[in-house]
Amino acid sequence: MTALKALLATMPQVGAVRWIGVRPARREPLVSVDACDAAVGQGLVGDRFRGGASSPRQVTLLQAEHLDVVAALVGRKGLMPDVLRRNLLVSGINLLGLVGAEFSVGAVTMLGTGRCHPCSRMEEVLGPGGYNAMRGHGGITAAVLVGGRIALADPVRLVKPGSLGAEERR
Question: What is the pLDDT of residues 48-96, one digit of tens each?
C-alpha cells in the first residue's frame, strides 16, 4: 500500500450529526427534525429532493465547521444550517475525505458521491457574493446504501475507504 493510499484509508476521527433538515416542497423552508429515516436508493424520507436509485444526490451533508467561514465571507456573524439547504450538518470529521468512500451515519451506510456545489439560490439567501462564498464549502452528496434511522448526535465514521484520488476527481 502506498503512503498516500494508507493516509486515505485512515480516518480516526468520528464525527457527529448536529442538525437534520428535510425540504417538504420546492422553494419551501427546510424543516428541522430530531430524527428521520433514510431509504436505500432514495434519500431521506420526507425530503422532496429524494433522488432515485440512479441519483448520486440522495442526501446532502454540510461541514459544521464551515458555517462560520461562509458567514464571515458574506459579512454575517453567523448562519443557521437551514439557510444553506443541506440535509445533514456534521461536525468533527472532514466530509471531503468521505467522497468516494462508504461511511456510516448512525445505523445508515452511505456512499460519498461527490462535492455539493452551490446553486444560484445561495445568492438569493446569502446576498451578493453568496454563491462564491459557498464555493468549496458546500459539503458533499451521498447515496444511501443501507437504510435506517438517523438522529441528532449519531456518529459519522469511515466504513470503507474510497479509491485513490476519488475526492479530487469529483
Answer: 866 666 678 899 999 999 999 999 999 999 999 999 999 999 999 999 9
In a domain, 110, yes or no: yes
Into how many domains does the chain fold?
1
SS3 letters across the chain: CCHHHHHHCCCCCCEEEEEEEECCCCCCCCEEECEEEEECCCEECCCCCCCCCCCCCCEEEEEHHHHHHHHHHCCCCCCCHHHHCCCEEEECCCHHHHECCEEEECCEEEEEEEECCCCCHHHHHHCCCHHHHHCCCCCEEEEEEECEEEECCCEEEEEECCCCCHHHHC
Q: How confident is the model at residue 26 (pLDDT cuts 50, 70, 90)?
A: confident
Q: Which pLDDT score is estimated for 67? A: 95
Is residue 139's pLDDT more than 60? yes
Is pLDDT of 168 > 50?
no
In-domain check, residue 47 = yes
Q: What average pLDDT does this structure show over 21-34?
A: 90
